[in-house]
Amino acid sequence: MNEIPAPVLEWDLIAPLMVLGAVAVVGVLLEAFVPRGPRFVVQASVAIGGVVAALGTTIWTATRTDVLDGDVLARGQVAAEGALSVDGPSLFTWGLLLVLALLSMLLFAERRLGGGLSAFTGRAADAPGSSGEAEATRHRLEHTEVFPLALFALLGMMLFAASTDLLMMFVALEVLSLPLYVLCGLARRRRLLSQEAALKYFLLGAFSSAFFLYGVALVYGYAGGFGLAEVADAVASRTQERPLLLAGVALLAVGLLFKVGAVPFHSWTPDVYQGAPTPVTAFMAAGTKAAAVVALARVLLVAFGGAEWDWQPAFWAVAALTMLVGAVGSIAQGDVKRMLAYSSIAHAGFILVGVVGATGGDGITSVSSALFYLTAYGVATIGAFAVVMLVRDASGESTDLDTWTGLGRRAPWLAGAFALFMLSFAGIPLTAGFIGKWGVFSAAWAGGLWPLVVLGVLVSAVAAFFYVRVVLTMFFDEPRPDGPLLAVPGAMTTVVVTVAAVATVALGVMPGPVLDLAQQAGAFVR
Amino acid sequence: MTAFWVLAPFMVLAALGLVLARKAVHAALCLAVVMISLAVLYAAQGAPFLFAVQIVVYTGAIMMLFLFVLMLVGVESAESLAESIPGQRIGAVVVALVFGALGVVGVAQSVTGAVVGVDAANEGGNVEGLAALMFGPYVLAFEATAALLITAVLGAMVLAHRERLGRRLTQREVAEGRLQDYAHHGTHPGQLPTPGVFARHNAVDTPALLPDGSVVETSVPAPLRARDQVRPGDRSEVDAVARELEPGEDPR
Amino acid sequence: MNDPVWVVVLKAVLIFVILVLYTLFNIWFERRVVARMQHRVGPNVNGPFGLLQSLADGVKLALKEDLVVKAADKLVYVLAPILATIPAFLAWAVIPFGPEVRIPFTDTYTALQLTDLPVGVLYVLAVTSIGVYGIVLAGWSSGSTYALLGGLRSSAQVISYEVAMGLSFVTVFLYAGSMSTSEIVAAQEDLWYFLPLVPSFLIYVVAMVGETNRAPFDLPEAEGELVGGFHTEYSSLKFALFFLAEYVNMVTVSAIATTLFLGGWRAPFGLAQVWEGANDGYWPVLWFLGKTLGFIFLFIWLRGTLPRLRYDQFMTFGWKVLIPAALAWTVAVIVLRKAQQEGQLDRTALLVAAGVAAVVLLATLLLPGRRGDEPAESEPADEPDFDAYAGGYPVPPPQAPHVPTRPWTQTAIAHHARDKEDSDA
Q: ipTM score of the complex?
């Protein structure tokens, strides 16, 4: 028997992933051994502690990466036998994902709002409205499995953003998606809607994964390897069999754009965002988008950068359509969560403008602008959904936009925070959104994509009109007599809303440090 | 290539059958044919390990679970063929054909040369080569699959497992409960009458008849009653049978 | 192996013939052995020792009317017995009957094995799993509840026990360093694997009985519940095919057990030392078939001895006992092998570890089960006075003397009456 050499894993570089994976597995074990009484508190603390530990490890890892020699700014190295690229963008995304996950975990752990019960159903196996469900509620059951599931999803996101090998990327895509499919179906209120959302997300997600996989196969057929660097070499050197490459790029893009939520692969977004439990929506909206955008940028710039004239026009069209559909769609919505879903589609469009505005191949400006935009968008999104969790009536969250009329008169601070997030979405100066939009548009302008930039600014204006209208109804209309109750926010939600609001303002007023961090991240390392 | 040209027609036919078959079980069988043929193709291309695993995992385990569900759930259910979006079916067919044509043309333009690289990959043995890849460059992906499997198990447990809240009733408690019901509400404590007793048929949907010919509703299982699937039966049917049995009144 | 075509064909035909004859023999063997266990004689009229009885029964079976039930799904109904039988034969393609031999009257040398795959054992697992289709589809296509339930039970059983079976294979692979049947036999030159891998061997033996749907695990054909199980609606040749498949499968799993754990075609312990030629020529075929027959005898013995399990107990046993045990053992073997390779483990340490493990195992077996304690706790401290009209209906007190009416208990009543008189006096 011939020896198989042991693989070399750079443990110090992949330490954040290892910490997170270990904590997730420990969570599964806790589920089996901790009695039901203290289980929720234990699971929540372990999950939050795990995310904090992973964040600490990420910072430690980031301080150990070296700036590489070369024409373009880049840091870090390819690790784990060529599966991951622990470079600047990866580390920035990891940090961002962990911060967003920390905020989401706090929302997951919030129990004040639902009468001492979390936002997740007590026993998912019971049919909605059945006697079993009532029994589960009477016994105050809660699915604490949501914490390990969310950690696994987070692990998948981090792997997805960093993978520099198409096979690894596919596995990461599944690790990130599968827990989310389950989490989407676990809402305590409006369970049928939640289950429908989970099923839709699962079916469409599986479908898009299949596209991605087929794309991987075709690209492998073209390049003879899974590594993005190998693909890049093949793109640079091979001139025959171009159709294989193009079909591969197209199919890969379908899978990635589905996760980004770009038109025409966006149709799942409103239904899923609306049906999923709000903490999950917040986590998913912020986290998945960040991971998927970075992965998309990595695939396009690293692997297919040499063939950019072949795919760029298609992406221009996608970006333009996404901005338009997202902005126009959000105007027509009467439900807060659906509105936020359409706004997330529009933001996907703005980010895509930045990503496809890459020039020359290394694309530092586009990547750093996209990273900053993701930060601004993620923080505001989680904050907005946290506010949605607080506006409730007898049957749970009151997401009908009409019932929010005059909210500002009754709860000025809460409505003020929501207005702040809306303004940030709209890209009003002095908020994080403005700096983000400025970044992506200037990157695209530098890349010569002025038509897209013009369109983007116009669309922003339309969207801003709408967001401002929401703010106006909240503050300047009379409150409805049958309006929603406002829950007393628990400590967790208060922290989340406050942190998100402060961060949104801080990133708008003095974006320097984070902007620097994003720019220092440099280019992707292959 | 011989194996390919022999198997490919079968696979295409089976794949078409999968889409077009009316009965779900037939469709599942067609899928099994496709999978087994695929396994044989793997074997023919020098990948015996993949051949065995493809059959064990896909044909043996996954398809079998599929069949289980189809057999238990979909016994009588017919698919609803109503279109919720007008023109969707035609549109889907057109798009699928165009997409397929695009794929065929694209791949056919590119894949022209001979197959290379199998011998190099199988140099130290097929299984050993695979192991070297799996525990070498793709070790992280392999390990991440473990996370995927844990998630799948956890998700299945969350969605399907009903945690038992109370103690399981003992046989004695069940019996006592029944008699209590009898004492307070007059519920019959014994088993419900079986369907079909003294009736024309002994199928489950045929209610039992009392000696005077009246119908015993409770003899038909509750789900059938709820679905209104009770076969009507009354005294006249009994009489009809009795007449047939009477030798004197035999019409022949 | 690059055999000429005629050799391959010859070997294939021989395997087929051997299997069919072996099946006929096994049916006779089973009837004779079970008869002996039940103090009967068994078939002894037709042919020497009644050996031709199975042949006569087979012919009779084939000549019966071939029914296709009205509710059946015709195509699948006809396909099912074929799907059950072919894989049973296919599995034999990788079983080694003996070493390389010269074919008589020629100068051709060939191994007594149809083909040698690097993944031979996995191939057997794969083919067996296709055989399950025959059973499931037979159950479904018959259009009968009994058949459907039998088919589902059978396939659930086969799939569940296949997991434990596969895990017991893993340890053998670890020891042999190969998944090819011939190499596993070659690796057992010094030590048959049932010795170092006792737990695997035991798990496999249990799993193989479950896998073949044989007593005490013959739930798919539990005649008290399901008439005949998946083949209730089959008759004539189609039924004969299922019958054939079951017996061939029985021989197959026995052959696998022989190959993986009992040294395959190697001569029994000691024989090769006193007789040089024991492992040469065609003698190994005899050893191989003999060992297989030993397993067949085990099957028959089990059938003659043990009552059938309840279905839920059977599944609980498979999933909650067999699979965890197999997993734990696999992990233990991996650790041991690694330690051995690194040279951190000598024979004494190994023996000590085995001793400790055995003691711990025994201790856990001797510990009183938790289930036994529970009723004692829940027993109420003092029994309330008996109320004959509790809950509004008359019930006899639990201590009330029962009035036996059967004649052989009359003496008991008489005793009881006398005791009562004594106490009254």
A: 0.88
